[in-house]
Amino acid sequence: MADHSFSDGVPSDSVEAAKNASNTEKLTDQVMQNPRVLAALQERLDNVPHTPSSYIETLPKAVKRRINALKQLQVRCAHIEAKFYEEVHDLERKYAALYQPLFDKRREFITGDVEPTDAESEWHSENE
């Protein structure tokens, strides 16, 4: 049966777990500062294949087939996405041309190069 006594309102199990975690962190810090440990880790890392393809080569044939099929689907998605952005760009260009005369007129009003006509300056609003 576990001891569920409390010390300062904290169960002793929690205090013990916190001490163990702190001790583990200290030990990890000490180990990671040991040059021999670091050299051994580096040697192990140097011997690990670094390329994703070398990892894929170790997989079963059925998994490799799935990966290749997924790659093909991803390429098809990328082509569709490219077409989408081409069409979005064309649409943006179309509407930019429609906006441009309004932007030009607005710039003329703001800079004072042109004064708005009575019809252009009329505003019907119940709130103003």
UniProtKB/TrEMBL annotation:
Segments forming a coiled coil: none
Biased composition (Polar residues): 20-31
Alphabetical list of InterPro entries matching this protein: NAP-like_sf, NAP_family
Name of a matching Pfam family: NAP
Region (Disordered): 1-31
BP term (GO), one: nucleosome assembly
GO (cellular component) term, any one: nucleus
Family membership noted in the UniProt record: Belongs to the nucleosome assembly protein (NAP) family.
Protein name: NAP1L4 isoform 7
Provenance organism: Pan troglodytes (Chimpanzee)
